[in-house]
Amino acid sequence: MRNDRQPRERALAPLVGHILLFALVTTTVFAITTTAVPIITEEQSSIQHEQAKDSLKEIDAVLTTAAKTNQTGEHAVDVPAGTIQIGGTEAEITVSNATRTHTFRSQPLKMATNDKEVVSEAGLIASTHENPSRVPQIESTPTEVRVPDSDTYQMHFVTVNQTGTRNRITNGQAGELEFQARSTGAAVSTLEGGNMTVESEHPQMWQRYLGNHAAFGNVSREGTTVTAEIDTDTKIRISVSRLSVI
Questions:
Q1: Nearest CA to 91 among 243, 200, 204?
Q2: Structural domain boundaries of the chain?
Q3: Contact yes or no for 119/128 (Cβ under 8 A)
Q4: Among 10, 157, 207, 221, which residue has the least CB neighbours within 10 Å?
């Protein structure tokens, strides 16, 4: 009996080895799937988000140059995989004091990658999140110069009016965004003291921008409206360049 059992045990040994090997491979694959894959996915998402920020900053620089040179031109910017939107619900910005009121509007530029989005309104660029409780990260602000030895701020906003028929593009992979920018006019307004009111789909980024700016105080937000007081000892000279983007 003992001699009969030994051949059977030797015959079962390879089968047991295969079962153990299969179990080891299965465990390893499961471990990789549950740990390494999410890490790789998050890393790719972060890279795409950084690329989206760089692309939107480049577009903003192109638009600012087009506004300053008052020229019409065709442009191409490298963009990551994701959804690109030019145009949409306008942001309305009003500056006023006891003697004058100036209102201007700008449509947004947006780039979405996975659960993150980069938004530009009138030259203010911020990274937002699908979770509204998370505070936006300011990436770039409108062009500004403070006059030396004074409390005068010269702020330049570039507003966008999307006039093309296709304003939302989803790219499965990285590529180029082609567009045309044409200047449609400019305006200047100078105020001492007063208020700035912004009506926007992205009020949190305006609240953070104005709240961190030395020329503004008492910044508050109610719904989609942000209000800030211009310091009484501060003079702001706001110039607005209007662009048509196709």
A1: 200
A2: 42-245
A3: yes
A4: 10
